[in-house]
């Protein structure tokens, strides 16, 4: 595959052919994780800066593991303990980090557009690890990869995104990726947690969870983004769990073999029944493993295309 992108900011910039190429490469990189020595010298001498100005367990750790499995060096910066706490702005932080000559900066930030802003200022590759409500492209790629390994083909498949759509960068990126690959996407959630401009999206919207689950191939439950919500959007968590928490009876309406997903972290018993999250139909932990293979693939593409560009 010829990789011409300098940055990964959203799924919008990827073609369906590029997404499928990423999945094919990720299948090879996934195999490295099954070896007794989980390391190749592919990116020896390269360095990756993990700049996480918002909390993360899965994304940060899996980028770190992905880079190390390819023998790249990683360095971490978080808000706590850095000069961001002293008020240094994003541009100055980015320019300072670039002066240390990393080959790529992976950024998570609470402001939508922050990754794009940084990418315009910096010469090194910028990979968006989640910016505000806007986008989480590597999450959508790993969600797609988890289902690609099972389905192979996306046309004729239906994915339901359930819950807090309005505040979810995962929902926005998943909608783009799955519709690009030819799947149908349904949304279901409280009216207060659906964005106002939803009519422009290529999705079908449901208010009743049983109707929404009928005949679907997979359900991705979304985390209630309580840290991004203003008050008054939900009467109570108990009422939310009663109307929109995924339960066994809902999955019985889905297609046989339908899968259950969640990008994490989970609010068990609210967004999803705890037994369902741990059931054989759950892909939640496979999503985490897929994240390493997808991020190895992206680091490989970005960091080796730099070498090719400079030849
Ligand atoms: N899915 C996801 O982005 O999880 P983390 O916040 O733990 O990285």
Element layout with pairings:
Layout: H1 16-32, E1 47-52, H2 58-69, E2 73-78, H3 90-98, E3 104-109, H4 114-121, E4 125-131, H5 137-151, E5 158-162, H6 169-180, E6 184-188, E7 204-206, H7 209-213, E8 218-221, H8 237-244, H9 248-251, E9 259-261, H10 274-277, H11 284-310
Parallel strand pairs: 1-2, 1-3, 3-4, 5-6, 5-8, 6-7, 8-9
Helix pairs in contact: 1-5, 1-11, 2-11, 3-4, 5-6, 5-11
The structure holds phosphoric acid mono(formamide)ester.
Phosphoric acid mono(formamide)ester binds near residues 56, 57, 59 and 130.
How would you characterize this protein structure?
Helix 2 links the parallel strand 1 and strand 2. Helix 1 (16-32) packs across helix 5. The protein folds into 2 domains: 11-135 and 288-310, Rossmann fold; 137-283, Rossmann fold. It has a 5-stranded parallel beta sheet. A 4-stranded parallel beta sheet has the order 2-1-3-4, with helices on both faces. It is α/β, with parallel strands linked by helices and 311 residues long. The protein is globular and about 55 Å long. The protein has helices at residues 16-32, 58-69, 90-98, 114-121, 137-151, 169-180, 209-213, 237-244, 248-251, 274-277, 284-310; strands at residues 47-52, 73-78, 104-109, 125-131, 158-162, 184-188, 204-206, 218-221, 259-261. It contains 11 helices and 9 strands. Residues 56-59, 130, 139, 263-265 line the site of phosphoric acid mono(formamide)ester (CP).
